[in-house]
Amino acid sequence: MSGREWLESVEPLAMLRVLPKASASDRKLILFAAACCRSIWQQLIDERSRMAVITAEDAVDDLVSEERVTAVRRHSHQARMAKGISGAAEATHRLVIPGTNWYLNGAADVSLHVRCAEDGNDNGFGRYVLKETPGYSPTHPLQAALIRDIFNPFRPVTFDPAWQSDTAVSLAKHMYESRDFSVMPILADALQDVGCDHDDILNHCRNEKLTHVRGCWVVDLVLGKS
To answer: What is the residue range of 199's domain?
Structure first.
């Protein structure tokens, strides 16, 4: 996949497969998987499943104890078994399963389980993997957009520490914690004020058509996260 194909792709699994391991940290892959789960938030009718998503997001920043993660894992398992394993409950539970190889298959598995939930095909995961589900398509524009927001493999940016002004860091921190990314254009202005002239960064912030979530590659650069 070329850089141009990456920008135009709507096939999330193909995009995940071309990510360099060096840039696809477990943290970023988990945040992508969590964002997929948040896209079906209304289908997570059991609070225990929602808590698995929230806990996974906090765990990547070391904000919760291992004991807490273990308890949430147990509760999310109970939720997935309560009415038979569903795509939605299975996706959220996988976020807190220990030892998951996120680079090879963890993120892809969650992606597919979310698609099962969206299609009302809760028992169809195996057929999705084998591409045998009737009408199966590898395309999913939203998940592809989430991947592009979190990962930037073809045009890596060297971020100048001088661009981490108090204003830029404050804006980035607010967006990261609140999940409200409406001030991305203001972040671009703040970065430009301290000398940032990198088109990829500024365009990513100002393009109103883009979707932004936790793990956004520009916000991560400002906050020094990887």
So the answer is: 161-223
